[in-house]
Write a structure and sequence with these properties.
By secondary structure, the chain is mainly β. It is built from one helix and six strands.
Amino acid sequence: MDLDACRVLKFAAPEEDRYLEHHVIQSILVDDNDFCQMKCYVEPTCLSYNLGTMASVDKFVCELSDSDHNEHPENLVFKKGFSYHPTVVSMPLKY
């Protein structure tokens, strides 16, 4: 990655009870959506993420994906308790 470039991401509105399967590159526990979104931002290959609640702890499952529903619409499925968060812009800015 070019050190003089800055990644720009915008996130579309989340889709409730939706889940992008088969493209998870990292799965972590987080306290909230903002932290998951930040993890996606700093991971150069992240194009979307799934966020789900866990019944046993007061954390969320954050799953970063290297694809999105535009590239793989067949992989966007119903999954209760999860939300799907796609990006709408992904480009480096040069300074």
